[in-house]
Specification:
Helix content is about 25%, strand content about 30%. With about 160 residues, it is of the alpha/beta class. An eight-stranded mixed β-sheet has the order 1-2-8-7-3-6-5-4.
Amino acid sequence: MIINGENMKIITNNELETIEFGERLGKKIFKGAVVTLNGDLGAGKTTFTKGFARGLGITEIVNSPTYTILKIYEGKIPLYHIDAYRLSSIGYDYDLEEYIYGDGITVIEWSENIKDSIDHHLKITIEIVDEKRVLTLESEYQEYKKILENLNETIY
């Protein structure tokens, strides 16, 4: 793990480590949180979300909502998993606004496609580097910074 000022960089060596890190973050997140995931196809966004859901106590199989746009998973806190790959905005056709900043936690894959609809969030960018995953976590909002600080303390 590499800490870089305001950002946190996590390097995972395989799918299992990516899931484990997602689970660790899921256990520390708060109700109403929005986590955005960006990265190329196959970078590990849904893999990360599988672990994140596990951290929320969700036992259902988590898979990409690419064609359905939204999947809802019930756990200690509901998880709203949005895939914005096919979207250019979230207007009246999808009614996603009620989920973003709603009663649960929202994870948005391909969030850059609807960035004008997202304000307060934790941004995670996943890159493939030498067959490893580099997850960069960043936010300008204090409550997410506290989570990153807490994660840093528990990883060591």
